Amino acid sequence: MPKRISRILCALIFVSLSMLGCRRPAVDNGLTKIVFQADWYPQPEHGGFYTALAKGYYKDEGLDVTILPGGPYITVEKQVSAGTAQFGMGASDKVLEANSGGQSLVAVAATMQHDPQGIMVRKDSPIHSFADLNGHSVAIKVGESTWFEFLVKRFQLNNVRVVPAMMNVANFVADPQYIQQAFATSEPFFAHQAGIETRVLLVSDAGYSPYRTMYTTREYLQKHPEIVAKFVRASLKGWKEYLNDPAAAHAMIAKLNPALNPEWMQFTWQQLRDGHFVAGDDPSGAQLGQMDPKRWATMYEQLVDLEVIGKPFDPTTAYTLQFLHTQ
Are 102 and 140 members of one domain? Predict the structure, then answer.
């Protein structure tokens, strides 16, 4: 996503982390304190959680939730595993990878049914499929893009040159041949502002389809299932409301991250809705938060095939469906 980092925001992140340390959940004024570690700075892709916070859904469940901003130097899995946060957000492939690496994380609900991760090209580009990437350079976040390893193997991209992604669209705008990773919900907006129309090839359309999830540790889940249920229930209520009306979340996000502007937030919200990323393809909204064991099994098999998972384990231990009918 575009890199709009202020020194003040970075300072707040590290001060917050140092103050929180490894604090365990506590009760204050009847509310259970919860720290939720985000995967990036406050943005509309977090809208459901900020809706739940702004509208008091967490408080209604007896929770006092603090959402810690993420950033390029924050690894959510490590923060949750270390106890700095009780909950975190991230893709299901990363949850599986973390478990293979010895971190006992459990996804408790999906925040997105489809991942907006993809490859962005210009609208008039000759690239119309992932196979067409052969012979081209692609800007990728090196070392953190298992999805690209999948594309390379599936489409036999043996003649692709990978360059480091700069987390903005400056090079994309300057060079008509430039190709980069992007979220369909974000980077196309900035290219459009610069007068460049785009297309995004979604990785999920190629068969690599992780959920975006909220997760906790297995130990926390076992000790505090009632708190997990409350957090899931309030969060999914927030996501349902956010898709209908983003005003409360956007007002809060704008205060926390002044680098955002209303047009960007509106674009992202519209893309989340139109692309069915959050609620899935069922118009009734019944898929909101839900997870399918078959998709988890497929993702696990893909990671094993890519040799990303070196130590086999039971993938059903990396998620639970027990809280998905409580909202």
Answer: no
